[in-house]
Specification:
The structure is a single chain. With 204 residues, this protein is mainly α. The protein has one domain. The protein contains six helices and two strands, in the order ααααββαα. β1 and β2 form a beta hairpin. The N terminus is likely disordered.
Length: 204
Amino acid sequence: MTVEQQSPETSSIPASDSLAAFHEALHRTQMASEVRAWAGLGIGALALAGVLALLLAVSRIPGIEDTFPWPLGFFQKGLVIHVVFSFVVWFLAIFGVLASAATAKAVHGTDLKLAALGRPGIILAYIGSLLMAIPGFMDRGEASLNNYIPVIIDPLYYAGLLIFAVALVLVVIRLVANVAGSRPIAGPFMDTALAGSIILIIAF
């Protein structure tokens, strides 16, 4: 009885690009907490979007406005926040996870370049998300339900967008700095993070 040998094309992902390798790289560069923070932001964004979906449904119950003081224009503004957090913030937070993991993987040893950009990026991302959500729960701002990404016309909301964008720029700068100074092994995580960085740079 002969044993079939797997061809290189059908073999599993190399150990150097496995989850175990990324886990080791995250702890070696002390970036595990940063990845968890980005993942927490993504999960929190989905949770807020889910709560808003429920509140939007409740706000349409006839007579509910007489028993609960809904903010002015809550349905339209809540819809904006629901869409932005369930798609935009969630997607970009996961990009933060991938970019941070790819940065750790690109580092040889513990020589992480621009390590100081990590914590400010996380803090700015959380602050930006909070500022984007605030107008939906206050009597301020006007919803703009356009065909692409809806927005709330309010200084707080725009400030949140800008701060969130700065957070992502910091993550991309650090990733590029560490990849440029090394020879990272290509793989799903690395390829996705670099492709996302290029798209983000073009979009900005």
